Structure formats: C-alpha cells, structure tokens
Amino acid sequence: MKIIENVLFEVSESDIINNTISIPSEVDIIYNLAFSGNKLLENINLSNIRIIGSSAFFGCANLKLIKGSSNVSKIGSGAFWSCESLKNFNISNNITRIENDTFRGCRNLENIDIPSGVTSIGDSAFFGCESLKTVNIKGDIETIGDAAFWHCRSLKSINIPDSVIEVGKHVFEGCNSIEDIDFLLYKFLSDDGKIDKQLLEEVKKIIKPLRKQELRDNEANHEKQKKMVIAS
User: Per-residue pLDDT tens for 29-72?
Assistant: First the structure.
C-alpha cells in the first residue's frame, strides 16, 4: 500500500486480506486508479474518505459492497467503471455532480438515489447498467449528459424533475422497460438536447387523457376475458 500523507496512491494484492482492505484512518483521499483492476477486493469501508479519484476502482469486477460513503464529497470520472458485482451505492449528500462514466458498466447495480445537492449527471454516468430498475432524483437536476442511461434495459422508473433544462443525445436509448408517460415525453420531445417546455406541457394535455383511457380499456378487456374463462 502506497500512502503519502493523507492520500492512498496504490494498492497491491497483498494488501487485500479476506477480500477486504483496512484503510488507515489518516487517509481521506483515494487517488486515481488506486484499486484499478483489483479482482480480489469484494468489500470496502470508506468512512473516512472525502475524495475518490478518477477510475479509482475501475475494473474491480468482484467489488460487491461499499460501506461508509456518507463523507465523500467528490467522485472522479469512471470511479466505479466496470464494477460488475456492485448492486447498490449510497451517493453522499455532499456530492454536487455525478461525473462522466462514474457507474458505467456496473451491470448489477439495481437502484440508485440521487441526492438533492446533485445538479448534473455526466455523460455515460450509468451507461450499460443493465440491472438498474429505479432512479430516484431527489433534487433539482438541471442537465443530463449524453448516453447517461444508455441501455439500462431494466429501468422501469425515473422521475424527471421540472428543473431539467438540458438532456444530451441518446440519454435513454435502449431503456425499453419504462412505461411512465412523462419519461417518454422527455425522451421524444427534446431538440438537440434542449427541452421545449411549452411543447411538453401541451402534449401532456393531449397524451395523458389518452393514456388513462387506454388503461381503462385494458382493464375492461381483462375483466371481459376473465368472465369468458369462468363461463366456459
């Protein structure tokens, strides 16, 4: 383990004991690429860490559990790229931006809460998170970068706040599990990433009643089919 003052620069396989590591209490910064490619690491406690550098855990394919991330105030780009076993991560309330590629390729990430202090989601931040089911945006996000949720195939729920003023290209491409109408409107009513708010509201007035009628029709058909089955 290479440590200079309060910065952890490098970790070797011999530092990983029982699939975890004990980070000295004086360390509050994990430098770029510090754990990159480490296949032995399965869980880690970040209770004293303030800053996680770019690609710090890149390719830690067996990293499953991260505890104590509440003090983290900055996460560099690609920090958890290809952490394929990671299922959950608690984004600290101190974070203001989710950088490019932060969780890219985290194929088993299931749910994520984006705290109220975050104002932007970077390019490809959740690119290819195939198991991601829900994204709960708690604050006033203003921008969502290119391909931020590209091919999040399992994504069923994401709330797009009214504060969003810019959406990048291919943000929700391949997100075929979402049924929420507001999401679909945002997906299709953006022009070069700029949301036409007036057009959005006008289309909502038309689409939402149609959607409600469609649901009523489906329910009526379901009841009709059920009666036919019982009668036969």
Answer: 999 999 999 999 999 999 999 999 999 999 999 999 999 999 99
Contacts of 160 (CB under 8 A, 6+ apart): 137, 182, 183, 186
Q: Specify the range with the lowest mean pLDDT, choosing from 90-94, 118-122, 137-141, 203-207.
A: 203-207
229: its two tokens: 């089955």
> What DSSP letter does each residue of 60-97 carry, written as one string?
-TT--EEE--TT--EE-TTTTTT-TT--B----TT--E
pTM of the model: 0.80
Tokens 């290809």 locate to 82
Angstrom distances, CA of residue 27 to CA of 9, 23, 48, 95, 148: 10, 7, 7, 19, 31
**Tokens of residue 92, six digits:** 């600290």
Tokens linked to 167: 């959406």
The strand pairing partners of 175, in sequence order, are none
